Amino acid sequence: MISFADSSVQIPFFILGTASVRQMALNNYFGFESVSFEKSSLTTLPNIIGVLAKYYRFYLQFLTIPIAVAGFYLPQGSLIYWAANSTITLVQQLALKHPHVREKLGLPDKLSPVDSGNSRSMDGLEATFTVPMVKKPIQELSLLELFNLAIKHLSKGEQDRAVPLLRLALSKDPEYVRALIAMGQILLKDEKLVEATDYFERAVAKLLHVGHLTEIEEIDHLILASTWSGVALARQGKVAEGIVHLERIANMKEPEDAKTKTHYCDALLVLSSSLASIGRDEEAAKYLRILTSHDPAYGKYLKDVESEDNNFANDLENSRRKDY
Hints:
- This protein is an all-alpha fold.
- The chain has two domains: 7-97, no CATH class; 174-322, Serine Threonine Protein Phosphatase 5, Tetratricopeptide repeat (Alpha Horseshoe).
- The protein contains 15 helices and no strands.
- Helix 10 packs parallel to helix 12 and helix 11 packs antiparallel against helix 12.
- The radius of gyration is 29 Å and the shape is elongated.
């Protein structure tokens, strides 16, 4: 018969073992970087590693039975450890699978489809907060709630569900800039260029009416609306009118905010393309030099403009069409 060790031995060893496991997990020790094999990407690998990981997961699940039996014959300290650890893990796993718990913790919905390469967030119009489960009529949602819910549907490729929400927001406030830009982008993607231009220019008019913009978000929206106005007009053959919108951005002070600066640089690149398309290569090169001073990667476009075989405008337009 196995005699149980004294508590003066069990307790220190139990504390030491628990602390050691915790420290190894915190230090990302090999084998401790994941708490579960349930959704491990290793099991999806097509090679021998994926097969081994899959069967290892089954092996760990099977070990539950012999460990439970062996627990009756091990010292009390080990039994207490395994019982407590397994109970806590079980409670955590069950809790984290509950949608209301995940919502409170700000975790994504497990039932939501994974975003594929064919569906992406609207350019520059990411939702400002995670949309909770709607528990009131759509008509009672605020403008921000309607917009965020629409963007959530767009991120899943559910355009037919997003458009009515945006239209409802605009029926409540016809000058709601976020919804105007989002609708314009949707229509531009569907090649409804005239309607898209109308939405973009309504957003531009609203922002310019404000006067001197100081909020980063307002500046970002003006850059986006002006850029896409220029793109939509250019696709209708109205390049000169589109350049007016794009030059508005070029005359702005360079933003300091990282995201807004990215949109600013995109606008200058579109402006360069538009200028090059109507033979104003020197002006196009001027803006490309500004971009190249920030990021040498733009240098390839500058070389295209300065070369005799100048296909810069066509190449850039084709690449932007592939983004939709």
